[in-house]
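Chain A, query sequence.
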Amino acid sequence: MLLIAIIPALLLAAWGLLAAALNRAPDRAQLIGTVLATLGVLVYLVVLVSGTDGGSSATFVGYTLTALLLPAGAWVLARLEPTRYGSLIVGVGALIMPVLALRMWQVWVVS
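Chain A, predicted structure.
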């Protein structure tokens, strides 16, 4: 279940970091990857909340909102920097998403 969110985010991270290493600006393909990574987190959230009975907390809501808004925010910043550093922003933003998904699981299921 956790892989639903982690795999698309790691693929997007690899893609963004590779594009930065190749000196390429963010393009439409990275936008599609960002949307797919966000959808992966959304599907993971629905499966997580419907599958187990966890406690509600402000921490979980914070991680959830960050995981859902981070890819869009990274994409906006990347488009403002139309150089290789824009792709770097997308890649680093995507690297944070698996950590957020793991913390969502820990807060919802473990505690």
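The radius of gyration is 14 Å. The chain has a mean pLDDT of 91.
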